[in-house]
Amino acid sequence: MRHLRLTVVNEVGLHARPAAVFVAEANRFASRIRVRNATTDSGWVDAKSILSVLTLGVERNHDIELTVEGPDEDQAAAHLERLIVSDFAGAL
Amino acid sequence: MDSVPSLSDLLPPEAIRLGVRARDWREAVTACGEALAAAGIATPAYTAEMIATVEQLGPYIVIAPGIALAHARPSAAVLRPGLAWVTLAEPVPFGHRDNDPVVLVVGLAAPDSSSHVRALATLAALLEDEQRRQALLAAPSPAAVKEIIDAYERSLAGPAGPRSADG
User: Fold this and answer.
1) pLDDT value for B78
2) Nearest Cβ partner for B114 among A13, A24, A51
3) Structure confidence by residue, pLDDT tens digits, A39-68
4) Nearest neighbour of B120 by CB, restricted to A15, A20, A23
5) pTM score, two decimals?
6) Where is average pLDDT lowest: B26-30, B115-119, B127-131?
7) What is the per-residue DSSP string for B93-161?
């Protein structure tokens, strides 16, 4: 299992377009991917469900934690890390 | 932190339309844009921006069974942060594998930053509650929609909540 803690630098946080892109990218992988808002100490939710991701209320500069577990966990973790750290470079 | 709008603050009664007739998802999103414009939240130009977003992001705007969240980038077409609420007389498909067809289109307009993220999180939590979601979809009037939302937000605020009783 891979575990990541990342800061969301996107100016609108993780909702609407960024959330849709994040969830779309998470859905490309077979691994089970969970996410939580560490800044607000939220519970863990399914990173492949946009509604669940929206409930986290991730704003700019919030920290999120991800766990990725499954056959493609290395690729999925690297991909999602790049997406968040690059502020969705080229994906919005 | 002192002026975070509640979900209810962002959804004026004039932006709620029930039983709208739409033949396809474009007409449904257009109805949503008209509701935003009628409430003074966005100009009609925002409608085209929302349609372009659906074309780009596709089915991921369908966030729950029967429910689409229409939105676009923050833009000059947005006059103030707000939401529109449009239910359809006949459900229409948006192309989502699991959550089609759509009966409720929530329109989101945000001029900038993240002040409305919390309201959106509240909306998402509200829609995840199966019973409340069914109640919202069956609400017979805009006032009934507002009442369900208000009741939910009051339940979150609790006795020590930040909101006064003037809502």
Assistant:
1) 93
2) A13
3) 999 999 999 988 899 999 998 899 999 999
4) A15
5) 0.82
6) B115-119
7) --S-TTTPSEEEEEEEE-SSSSTTHHHHHHHHHHHHSHHHHHHHHH--SHHHHHHHHHHHHHHHH-TT-
